[in-house]
Amino acid sequence: MNPTTFPGRALGEASSRPGLSVDRLGGVIAVLIGIAVFAAPFVTYRANRIVAGEARMLVEAVSPILAGAVLAAALLAAVAAVVVQQPWLRLGAAALGLMVVTPSVGAAAWFLTPPGNTFARISPALGFWLLALALGLLVADSLTRLRLGPWARLAALAVAAAFVALLVLSGAWNGLSILKEYATRADGFWREARQHLFLALGSLLAACLVGLPLGILCHRAPRLRAAILPVLSIVQTIPSIALFGILMVPLGYLAATVPLAAEVGIRGIGGAPALVALFLYSLLPIVGNTVVGLAQVPAAVVEAARGMGLSDRQRLTQIELPLALPVILTGIRIVLVQNLGLATVAALIGGGGFGTFVFQGIGQTAIDLVLLGAIPTVALAFTAAVILDAAIDLANGHD
Q1: Which residues, given as ranges, of the chain have pLDDT below 50?
Q2: Whole-angstrom distance, CA of residue 46 vs CA of residue 52
Q3: 138-197 per-position pLDDT tens digit
Q4: CA atoms of 391 and 385, how far apart (whole Å)
Q5: Fewest beta carbons less than 10 Å away: which of 117, 236, 266, 273?
C-alpha cells in the first residue's frame, strides 16, 4: 500500500518502510539547509551601495561562536525535519533556528563593516534566504500538521510580527543595507506605504460596494449574469500595465474637460488610473463568488424561510448572505492579495506605492532598494491571506 494513503497522514509525512522513518518534505528541507550553510554565501559585502558585491560564507561573515550557533541550530532543524514526527517538536526546532539565524545576519553587518565606514553595504545572500525559506517551510508544515484553529493561527501571526518588530526596533538589523536604505527614506517609505494601502484597500472597498449588489442581481437574473460575467472575465485577461495605460487616455481627457475632476485628483497619470484599474480587476472575483455563494444556499432552507413568512429582503439578509459569506470572503481574499501585488505596478504611471522603491532600485542597480519595496509588499499580502483565511474559517463556524 502506498504510504501516502494511510488515514491521518499528511502527504509530506514519514515513509512507512520497515526500519525507516524519513519525512519526505523534511528531506527537501534538510537539503536546502545543507546547501545554505555549506555551499551558499551567507551575506554579500559591497564597498558602497552600487558596486558589485563579494560573497562571504557563514564562517567568514560572523564570529566563530555565532557561526557555530547558527550551524548547530540549522543542523538541529534539519534532523527534526527528517526524522521527528511530533509537530510541536518540529515547530520548536524551526522556531529556534529562526531565532538564531535572523539576528545573525544583522550581526554579520556589524562584524564585516570596518569601524567608522558609512559606505559599506552588507546584504543577506543566497545562503541566508535559503535557510530562512527552509525554516519557514518547516514552520508552515508543523502548523499545518497541528491543524490550528483560526484564532490560534492569528496568534501565531501576531507572535511572528512581534518577533520581526523586536528585531527592527532593537537595532539588531540596523547594519544591513536595506535598513540603511530605509533610514535615508523613512518619510517617503511611510508615505508610499499609505498610498499602497489606499490603492489596495480603496479599490477593494469600491469593488465590494459595486460587486456585492451586482452579484446579487446576477444571481437573481440569469440573463444579466450571462452578459456581465463574460465582460468581467475579459477585463481579467488584460495585462495590468496595459490596462493602466488604456485608462490614462479617458481619465486625462476627463481631467482636462471637467475642472471638478482635476480638483478631486483625477488625472491621466498618478493614482486615479491605478485605482480604477484595480477596481476593475476586483469585480470578477467578488461578483463571481457572490453568485456562487448564493447559488450554494440549499433551496430547502430558502423555501423554509419563505414558509415562515420572511420577505425577500429578510431572506437575503438573514439567510442567504450569511450562508454565502464564506464563499464571498474567499473572493475578497483573492482580491486583496491580488491588489496588494498589482499596486506595485502603479508606480510606473506615477501612482506611488511600494513599487516606487522597486523601480528606483532597478534603475539604480540597487538591489536593497528593490527589497525595500518588495519585502513589505510580500509581508502585507501574506498577512492579509492569513487574516482572511481565519475569517473564512470563523464564518464557516470553525473555532
Answers
A1: 1-11, 15-19
A2: 6
A3: 999 999 999 999 999 999 999 999 999 999 999 899 989 999 889 888 889 999 999 999
A4: 10
A5: 117
Backbone angles phi, psi at 23, to 5 degrees: -80, 125
CB 360 within 8 A of CB 298: no
Cα separation, 21 vs 9, in Å, equals 13
Query: At which residue does the C-alpha cell 475579459 appear?
Result: 234
Geometric angle at alpha carbon 31, from 26 and 33, rounded to 5°: 95
Q: Helix 64-83 vs helix 24-38: angle between axes, to the nearest 10 degrees? A: 160
- Which residue shows C-alpha cell 454565502? 324
Q: How high is the pLDDT of residue 262?
A: 65
Per-residue buried b or exposed e for 38-59, using 16+ beta carbons within 10 Å of the residue's own CB: eebbbbbbbeebeeebeebbbe
Q: What is the model's pLDDT at position 191?
A: 93
SS3 for 123-139 is: EECHHHHHHHHHHHHHH
pLDDT at res. 399 = 66
> Rounded CA gap, 308 and 290, in Å?
25
What is the distance between the alpha carbons of residues 180 and 265, in angstroms, rounded to a whole number?
Answer: 33
- C-alpha 260: how far from chain center: 37
Q: Where are the domains of the chain?
A: 3-147, 186-395
Find, among 280, 255, 284, 288, the residue nearest to 269 by Cα.
255
In eight-state DSSP terms, residue 14 is B
43-46 β-sheet, strand order: 54-56, 43-46, 121-124
Helix (H, G, I), strand (E, B) or coil at 84: coil
Whole-number Å distance between alpha carbons of 32 and 40? 10
Output the DSSP codes for 185-253: THHHHHHHHHHHHHHHHHHHHHHHHHHHHHHHHHHH-HHHHHHHHHHHHHHHHS-HHHHHHHHHHHHHH
Cell of 253: 481627457
pLDDT tens, residue by residue, 210-255: 999 999 999 999 899 999 999 999 988 888 888 888 887 777 777 6
Q: Into which CATH architecture does domain 186-395 fall?
A: Orthogonal Bundle (1.10)
Contact at 8 Å (CB) between 214 and 294? no
Q: What is the pLDDT of residue 263?
A: 67
